[in-house]
Design goal:
37% helix; 7-stranded mixed β-sheet; 4-stranded antiparallel β-sheet; 24 strands; alpha+beta; single chain
Length: 587
């Protein structure tokens, strides 16, 4: 628009000089002179063989241009002539101006139809005419969007020629409107040129129409014309379209904000409701936790001198670990190995080693004691020993353990459903929701990209991405404990509270080694192994046997070393299991 303002000022000065010329006061002809009268001298004689174009633009009261172009190809017409229209031009920093060119047709000098095809290139529209053997052609079309109220007036602005396929010797443009123009401007040359066209005038001394002339237009050159009219004399306004940019694509408007809110709040609200409905643990805790907050020993046989460890609901360490975090992980397997040793199914022997060498342990399988094994415990024993009766911890990673541990993990998950603690296997439930969340997130990304490229509403796509991410994160909370599972979970937390605060004096000294040994696997699950390993070592030192039936060390090993030894064993076994790749994920 800046070039239009500069050219308009120059045109206004020129028009004033024309109107004030000495001959203007005496000119009173009843009719306006023909267009050629005020144009430069005609071209040389050989111009008859050159192409000319006479463009007539009729501007109606609604601001619609009805155009008719009279093209003369001389004695040597081209087989095809391409006329280009500029249909999208810069308007301001964020918008483009759109010109709608419709109703395109062409006839030759005798009135026969000329075949026409169009090619929309986005910013330009190419009109191809079959001009073979035709010395003349008349092109007709309609233009909307060329008029716009500007300042205190109305402007008709239009790139009358967006380009020719051949050199055109002379192009004239005449604009007829219901009112005379007040100012003119025109530029010609390459796109965005600021060079004034060959000439422009207002149709003689009566100033009844706008006329423009440009000579020798090479292929690709343009002719841009502007005519100013009084305010309100002509209707219509510019058609503008917001240009694409990353900022405009994510424009926040009342409409996009409303859609964003719906797309985000509805799925996230449903997710939160599902989590609250499915996560019934807190309600069970309020009524059931106190039932598990007691000493997990059975003194019913105290008359015969018997004290027996009884975990809440007879839950084994691996089951507790899976119930608490809904995942069969490395800690559950490590605690189960220690529990099997404490219960007499295997022994753990710390092997002699040099001062700075790595410590290794040997696991020895024992004859089956009078203690029933759960399915996952039996599978774990088979995974550890396979066809052997003893194995070193350092050799487990090379003994085919990875594939065998996969079955242990699956059996632990099946145990959760068999015991009716979960309606569905928690790993599958979590995976289904996580997969759905990832799919929604990917869909949101694709939707956002599509909306950013083709619309200005990409902001709404972000809501789908956020909703998908929320479902992915919320998947960790979707495995639903049943009522029975919630009760066992509450009792388990009560047991955990006891282990974190229990005093060794609660158990008679003669039973401390056996009872505290049973505590130790659960302490591994509850991350309290340091305290109970030290308590167990102290209890063993008080025993006359000065040892543990399930754990032994080298000749120079003492029971006072047990706390450090069992921690090192648990860490090493955890590393071996982790390296199997079966327990690296959280499913």
């Amino acid at each position: 628009m800046w070039r239009v303002g500069i050219a308009r000022a120059a045109a206004a000065v020129g028009a004033l000089l024309v109107l004030c010329a000495p001959g203007a006061a005496s000119a009173q002809e009843s009719a306006a002179p023909p267009a050629a009268q005020s144009l430069p001298a005609s071209l040389p004689d050989d111009a008859q063989r050159q192409i000319t174009n006479d463009i007539r633009l009729n501007l109606d009261d609604n601001g619609v241009l009805r155009a008719e172009e009279s093209l003369s190809f001389g004695q040597d017409p081209p087989a095809e002539f391409v006329r280009t229209f500029s249909v999208r031009e810069p308007y301001d920093a964020d918008h483009s101006r759109i010109y709608e060119v419709t109703a395109i047709s062409a006839v030759d000098g005798s009135g026969r139809e000329v075949p026409v095809t169009t090619d929309d290139r986005g910013d330009t529209l190419d009109v191809r005419m079959d001009t073979s053997g035709r010395s003349e052609a008349v092109l007709r079309y309609t233009v909307r969007g060329a008029v716009d109220p500007v300042g205190g007036g109305t402007e008709m602005e239009w790139t009358a020629v967006g380009g020719y396929s051949r050199t055109v010797a002379e192009t004239t443009v005449v604009v007829d409107a219901a009112v005379p123009p007040r100012a003119l401007s025109c530029t010609a040359g390459r796109a965005r040129s600021s060079i004034y066209c060959t000439s422009s005038d207002m149709g003689g001394h009566e100033a009844v129409r706008a006329r423009f002339l440009q000579t020798d237009m090479e292929p690709g050159e343009t002719l841009h014309v502007v005519a100013g009219y009084p305010a309100g004399a002509i209707g219509g306004e510019a058609i503008v379209d917001r240009d694409w940019s990353l900022q405009s694509s994510f424009a926040i408007t009342p409409g996009t904000a409303a859609v964003f809110g719906v797309l985000l709040l509805v799925p996230v609200g449903v997710l939160i409701a599902l989590i609250r409905i499915r996560g019934r643990d807190e309600r069970a805790l309020r009524t059931e936790a106190a039932a598990g907050d007691s000493t997990p020993v059975d003194a019913s046989e105290s008359g015969a001198g018997g004290v027996r460890f009884r975990p809440p609901d007879d839950v084994h360490p691996g089951q507790i670990g899976t119930l608490i975090d809904e995942q069969a992980d490395v800690v559950d397997i490590t605690a189960t190995v220690v529990d099997l040793a404490v219960r007499g199914h295997l022994t753990i022997r710390e092997l002699p080693h040099a001062q700075f060498s790595a410590t290794d342990w040997r696991l020895d399988k024992c004859p089956p004691p009078d203690d029933d094994l759960l399915g996952y415990e039996r599978m774990l024993l088979d995974a550890l020993f396979h066809d052997a009766h003893r194995v070193k911890l350092s050799e487990l990673g090379r003994s085919g353990l990875p594939s065998r541990l996969a079955g242990v993990r699956e059996e632990l998950y099946r145990d959760m459903v068999r015991l009716k603690w979960f309606a569905n296997r928690p790993n599958l439930e979590r995976n289904r929701w996580a997969s759905a969340g990832i799919a929604i997130t990917v869909l949101g990304l694709v939707l956002t990209v599509v909306l950013a490229v083709f619309t200005k509403a990409a902001f709404t796509g972000l809501a789908v991405i956020i909703a998908g991410a929320a479902v992915t994160v919320g998947a960790q909370f979707m495995p639903a404990k049943t009522r029975q599972g919630s009760v066992v979970f509450a009792h388990t937390l009560g047991f955990r509270s006891y282990l974190l605060s229990a005093d060794a004096e609660d158990v008679p000294s003669e039973h401390r080694v056996s009872v505290f040994s049973r505590y130790l696997p659960y302490a591994i699950i509850f991350d309290n192994v340091d305290r109970w390993a030290a308590v167990l070592a102290a209890a063993g030192s008080e025993d006359a046997a000065d040892g543990l039936p399930w754990y032994s060390g080298p000749d120079d090993w003492r029971l006072q070393d047990f706390a450090d030894s069992i921690k090192s064993f648990a860490l090493t076994l955890t590393g071996v299991i982790s390296n199997t790749r079966q327990f690296r994920t959280l499913d």
